[in-house]
Amino acid sequence: MSIKPWREIAQPHKDVLEGTLKQSEFAADISQVAAGTAAPDYQDAERFFSRTFITEGMRLLLISVAQRLAGQGGDPVIQLQTAFGGGKTHTMLAVYHLASRTVGTDKLEGIPPVLDEAGIHELPNANVAVLDGNNLSPSQPIKHEKLKINTLWGEMAWQLLGKEGYDLVAAADKDGTSPGKAVLQDLLEKAAPCVILIDELVAFIRQLESGKYCAGTYDSNLSFIQALTEALKAVPKAMLLASLPESKAEVGGVTGEKALTALEKYFGRVESVWKPVAAEESFEIVRRRLFQSIGDAGERETVCKAFAELYRTNDGKFPQETLEGGYLDRLVQSYPIHPEIFDRLYGDWSTLDKFQRTRGVLQYMAIVIHRLWNTDNRDALIMPGSIPLDDALVRNKSIHYLPPGWEPVLEKEVDGPRSVTADLDGHHPLFGGVQAARRTARTIFLGSAPASSLQRVRGLKVERILLGSVQPGQTVGVFEDVLKRLRDKMHYLYSDQDSFWLDTTPNLRREMEGRKQNIPAEEVMAYARSSMSRLFGRSGMFAGVHLFTASADVPDEIGSGPRLVVLSPSSGYSAGSGDMARSAAEDILRHRGDQPRQHQNRLIFLAAEADLVSRLKDHARTAIAWKSIVEDVDNGRMNLDLFQLKQAKRNREGAEQAAIQMIKEAYKWLLCPAEDLSKGKPSLAWEMLSISPSAANPMQEIAEKLKEEEWIVSEWAPIHLHQLLNKWYFKDGATEVSAQKVWKDCCNYLYLPRLLTEDVFVNAITKAVSTCDYFGFSSGKESETYLGFTFGGHALVYLDGSSLLLNKESASAYKEALDAAERAKAGEVPVVPTPSTGATPPTTPSSGAGSTTESVPLAVVKKMFYGTVALSPIKAKIDFATIMDEVVQAFTSKPDVDVKISVEIQATGDKGFDEALQRAIKENCNVLKFKSAEFDE
Question: Cα angle at 743 between 740 and 744, to 5 degrees?
Fold first, then answer.
């Protein structure tokens, strides 16, 4: 749904558009209005009310004023007390213009409904006295014609009735003593209907504490206020409005606090409660003063509904309040300004001593709107993310209320032409298309800049950052992503769980960045190797995993499985150009140091994506830098507060996880060497395969890929071994081949299958010889006889130098000869021809002298085995384990075989054995139950 930008619906006032509106014009001065020298917006009653939103508090007050002046009730004394910029003076101006107007009340916008509610048809004009504590001096008399008036009561009397009024209090004015209640009552009765407006009273009275001035003493002025409030109760058509400060910044020290306490006591006897401006009312106050028109109601509602729908469809991403029905009403009421701006300015910025609530918001937003209009801003609403902090006027106004140090933060990080946000938006189209980085940083600034470092809970939550940044039609995830990028790049941005804030003190990222630049390449490689060992340290199907290992250090042995060689990051692979990776892998494949490598078919290679190597190194440097910061704190070499320490540890953990993930993303290429025989000559070829970076267990992922692509064979069907034997070994008349040779050839030559372990080869043989479909097996050969021959039966297959594989034809013929010999032995067949294999089957005794046929010799049955082997004393433990697996286990697996093992140890020392050694050896031998253990000369 396409929605119109605010500039096509709302129309600011001309002075806001042109930038000719003076900031001082927002500061209403009641003395200037009384003197007739104020700006037109304040001086002219009609214009004043046309730009004034009558709030609930102002409406109730004006009703009371109208009733009082008409003699129909109302409050005699009303005290206005709110925080700085809370609208006190503006309210007084409304009363002033209502009482002293020169036009009919029907010309004053918003007043007729007030009078109707008050039940007044004709409102009389009233005499008005304006006493401004900031405009009067206790030591300087005020001149009116030929008179010099010294006191508040003298000035009040003059403004109400001129010389006639002054004469009533003249004596008291000259000697600085308060006139009595009766005198003041007489004055008020003659001046009625009348209104007395006293602004900044504390500012005047606090100056009288130190002594007596022509304006009277501190006590005489307080007595005047007390007498005046009492007199007003007795005069039905007279009333007083007085403003008192609420914040300590306005009170002015101990004397001011004392004066405020006394005045509150006197006013408290007769005062009426005045309701200050509510938050929602501030919307209309600002809007009416800054905008000439807010456009068509239907168009406004369309925009606001689009925002409400955005919040509804992204439940959980924005504050809960946005899902309530009342929030749509807030959007409509504040249009074309987003409510979040008002919440931040009225809620956060108004806590600053120098920031005046409504006045400060007006001044700030006037500059913002002027700048947005002239830069053709197309936002649907004016949001925190819309505030152009790159503009000098907006920036200066923003930091005017803040402590020193914010300008470089805004310029370098938040919203300058060379800022972090400009760089992110400029280099990432996804961000730049919606100015995600700038809008997010602006929102964080508006919501966190007024905060104090002493606050227990700081920052703006992610949901409020999104609320101030995202518009309808934009993807919330883009802003969530850019927030993470800003956290990693900005030096003045802090974060704690889901809260973010800006500060003038650099975060630890600057310290980290400084350290990061000085980390040597060797340390980066060491960290990468250490991190990779956590991912690839468990060898799994591999006999070993070799990280960034030189060719001389990669073993050249068959081992218990293939070996995975992880190439150095400098030997990266890319689909377009993988020469560096292939070259490095080929060097290890062909050589072990200076020697040629024999078992080439036992190696698989893993290489990094060349385009990601620089990012991998950067992540490694970041992790090393954070780790060094935490170590320096732990070792007392660096001082951090508790929050910074927690942040450093979180960043270290985050950086380590990011480095691990970067390794997964970078090391994605499996390189498998293979050879094709072209014209009888092997030609090296490389097969490449990428693995998923999202795999929880990279080693398991690699194993599955290798098996899936059959780069490593973990289960081998007999038919495949049969075909391999026929192709390479049973040709040119060959009928048998060493089983061990075939296995070793599979480990050496790249054109043969790469078997996982020797067991895969043995299992294939075992399955094959259990039938008569493939080939036969013999554990050895003596003369012309195959020992342990199996073809179509169960065989205990193990590999040594004597085990043989026989092609199908030879195995079948030999088996037939064996069967014939067995039948002859049983008396069934007396003579069997010699098979053509060249090997002679076992024979039976001769059928007798003179026989004309060749008899079959009987096989010799061997019933005992003896074996002796010398073991290295250094490797005896390993060698003995091998003997147990390869020899002894073959016997013990037979239930009818009795196995006995003895160990003979001989040790000779030219210098003899000392007594301690002899004693220790004898004790150990006794425990181990040696039959004999003696030392000799």
Answer: 85
Q: How far apart are CA 78 and CA 270, in angstroms?
A: 8
- pLDDT above 90: residue 42: no
Average pLDDT, the chain: 86
Neighbours of 182 (CB within 10 A): 11
Task: Answer whether residue 186 is part of any domain.
Answer: yes
Q: Is residue 498 classed as helix, strand or coil in its secondary structure?
A: coil
Other C-beta atoms lying within 10 Å of the C-beta of residue 544:
17
User: What are the pLDDT digits (tens) for 579-619?
Assistant: 889 999 999 999 999 999 999 999 999 999 999 999 999 99
CA distance 100 to 128: 7
Domain-located, residue 680? yes
| 491 and 408 share one domain | yes
Within 13 Å and on the Cβ side, how many CA atoms surround 558?
A: 17
Q: 225 Cβ partners below 8 Å, 6+ apart?
A: 201, 263, 266, 267
DSSP state of 278: -
pLDDT classification of 356: cutoffs 50, 70, 90:
confident
User: What is the dihedral sign for C-alpha 163, 167, 171, 173?
Assistant: negative
Single out the residue of 758, 756, 762, 766 nearest to residue 791, CA to CA: 766
- Altogether, the residues listed in the chain come to a count of 937
H/E stretch holding 283 reads: helix 279-290
Where is the domain boundary, 788, 810, 825? 825
Domain count, the chain: 4
Total Cβ atoms within 10 A of residue 498: 11
Nearest by Cα to 309 from 468, 471, 499, 180: 471
At residue 406, the pLDDT reads 92
pLDDT (tens digit, 9 = 90+) per residue, 451-475?
Answer: 765 455 678 999 999 999 999 999 9
Do 257 and 371 belong to one domain? no
List all residues 6 or more positions away from 661 whose beta carbon is below 8 Å from its beta carbon. Answer: 693
Beta strands in 459-585 (DSSP E): 460-461, 493-496, 499-502, 544-547, 563-566
* d(C-alpha 421, C-alpha 425), whole Å: 6
Helix then strand then coil, % of the chain, to nearest 5: 50, 10, 40
Q: How far is CA 873 from the centre of its chain?
A: 59
Cis peptide before 336 (omega within 30 of 0): yes
Cα–Cα distance for residue pair 256/250, rounded to 1 Å = 9
How far is the C-alpha of 142 from the C-alpha of 148, rounded, in Å? 5
Contact 222, 48 (CB under 8 A): no
Q: How far apart are CA 756 and CA 817, in angstroms?
A: 37
Whole-number Å distance between alpha carbons of 920 and 935: 12
Q: Give the C-alpha separation, 753 to 766, whole Å.
A: 18
Q: Which two tokens stand for residue 243?
A: 């403003």
3-state secondary structure at position 804: strand
Contacts of residue 828, defined as CB under 8 A and 6 or more positions apart, other chains included, come to none
Q: What is the pLDDT of residue 832?
A: 44
Task: Please report which helix (H) or strand (E) contains residue 669, including its range.
Answer: strand 669-678
- Domain-located, residue 641: yes
